[in-house]
Amino acid sequence: MYYFASDIHLGAGDTATARSTEQRFVRWLTEIESDAEALFLLGDIFDFWFEYGKVVPKGFVRTLGQLARMTDRGIRVVMLTGNHDMWVRNYLHEECGIEVYTRPQLFEVAGRRLMLAHGDNLGIKGAPMLRLMNGIFRSRVLRFLASWLIHPDLFVSFGRWWSGSSRKAHGQERDLRFLEPLVEYARKHQGEAECFIFGHMHITHEVREPQHLLFMGDWHYAPNCLVMNDEGEITQKILE
User: Fold this and answer.
1) Which of 36, 48, 96, 231 can bridge 68 by disulfide, Cβ–Cβ 3.0-4.6 Å?
2) Where along the chain do its domains lie?
């Protein structure tokens, strides 16, 4: 079986909420471990992650330990970064055995060509402010300045505050019109994949025509996942 999840936002909310979310996520990882051939994580697994050369944010030990256990057992774990956890280096790969990608990737899974991405920076040519913000946050200059001029305690605290503010600004309710940029992206790349899978929008939804798209919701309100069997059939599940 092949599993897909997105937008866990580990560390989000107060201490009790963050712990509850991580416990639920780790339980799910433990449950799928027995039959998982691969696990694909489509971004915003962490509500904020900034990796220094020799320092990573404290916490998430249950999640990282379970993911390392899975890769140690030969389960392929793939992570595509999102807008909340784009600042990765090599820690997740070297310490936990996770394949990390920072751009949309085409995978062949169970004989099907899947285009996987978080979706935050796709189809935004008509949104200049959003393009500007994406450019700033992905800037190597900003990353260098944050790494060397700001104490980690200060920058991680700021990053967690910013991530929380961004999440609250978007709110729980999302209109399906928010999905249109990603639908348009899939339309332009329709010859490259049989199915496109995205996160980011916090909406659980499926589009069949003219391309097949699957959107995964977030784990803060309704934990969910996609499951693909060896025949390539995909099921969208809301978890208890």
Assistant:
1) 96
2) 2-238
Write the pLDDT tens digit of every residue in 160-214.
777 777 666 555 556 777 888 899 999 999 889 999 999 998 989 999 888 899 9
The pTM of the whole model exceeds 0.85:
yes
- What is the Cα–Cα distance from 81 to 155, expressed in whole angstroms? 19
Q: What's the Cα-to-Cα distance from 110 to each of 34, 49, 103, 185, rounded to whole Å?
A: 18, 31, 22, 24
Residue 167 CA to residue 173 CA, distance in Å, equals 11
